[in-house]
Specification:
single chain; alpha/beta; 5-stranded mixed β-sheet; 14 strands; binds zinc ion
Length: 320
Amino acid sequence: MSINEVARDVFLVRLPLPFALNSVNCYLLRDADGWTVFDAGLHTDAGEAAWRAALASLDVTPEAIRQIIVSHHHPDHYGMAGWLQALSGAPVLMAPREAELAAGIWGKPPDLPEPMARLFSRHGTPEDLVATITRDVALLRRATLPHPAPTPLSPGAALTMAGRRFVALHAPGHSDGQLIFFDEADGLLLCGDHLLNTITPHIGVWPGSEPNPLGRYLSSLAELAGLPVRLALPGHKSLIHTWRERVEELQRHHADRLAAVHAALDGGATAYEVARRVFLFDQYTTHEMRFAVAETIAHLEYLVDAGIVRRVEGEVVRYE
Ligand SMILES: [Zn+2]
């Protein structure tokens, strides 16, 4: 855990993650009447210890937390929201779509089959990897407990945090309903996982995703490219000082990846087969393999939507 004041009254709290991507950026924003927690981290013992240390080092008592905001439902951002809510009694604000996804994926009753398993099987993933994915997801699900009682927050809402006026903006692609928060007066953006430095935000098809997440992501990037962002505070890695350049790099990355996926299709293949050709699959953890396949489906679905590739439905989905 480390803490830095990255803008006046805005503190970056870096929490540990047990993945190749080994940390998540959460933020504490200070106001006279209390603190805002922005994103919660994955619920592990190390995560709890890190939050306790961070709150203690800034002299934040649980009662001084006045609200908790979750940018999107992924477990590294949502996982400790319920724990923080139980600790503080503060409301947890989330986009309704994200609350719905969290309830559907992390709140799945134990006796229902794993929707993740069905999706990956349909896309040609071998059964032993599907079984491992099912176990990985069950572990992640445990790291989202307890669930918060969310309060809906919609795009356009204005919130005072760190003495600034932030407006919630819908930033889909990484997750259908992700919200990011812009303080226009200072050009400060809490950008969740919409843009990241060094790594590209994951854009994948997951159970219950709206169609064509990559198409929605690229439209959103095009819309937000001109936003006068001086400093963006992302969900992972380093702060973003060159907004427009980073947007353009990500646009180029996806154009290249679309070309690579199209070439790897080589006439016809499943998403799993394409993922094996495009990614350094054999060097990956099973967690990363899952992301690689989901990302490949998203690129193939973009090409389907563009009329370049055809999806052939059967017991297994093939692309041609
Ligand atoms: Zn994340």
